[in-house]
Write a structure and sequence with these properties.
single chain, 0% strand, mainly alpha, 5 helices, 154 residues
Amino acid sequence: MNDPAAALLEWDPRYTVHVADIDREHQAWFALINGVHKAVINGTGHDILRTVLAETTQYTFSHFAHEEALMSELNYPESEDHILAHQDLSRRAREFTDRLENGQSATMLEFLVFLSEWAKHHTTTIDRKLGAYVQAHQLEASGLLPAEPTSLPV
């Protein structure tokens, strides 16, 4: 990222999890993170920056709640690890916000770089696994994929 005003996160097909709702949410999340980044680069005032960060944080938690409800509904076998990853990011975001509010050394850019790297890694690994599971479950529910492996005649 040579141009400081460039988007921190560019949506690209490698981030898709092949589940339309989740992909749309990820695209919106990337755009929100880019909005905070742009505000930082443009030197937006502290109050506006705090508002934009709060909106991004709220959206993140809403997205996590959606994924976690989906995992619960589908009895996703890796939900515990996935939820732990969400909780870890939530904890780090709260720590950063607390540091910022208390005037401790914390730079917004430092947090945004961390968040963008986390988002890229999370979508291409943990969320991709969830996407594959959701797709398989949808195929099974549609009758296009057998629920149980069929045995071959002997």
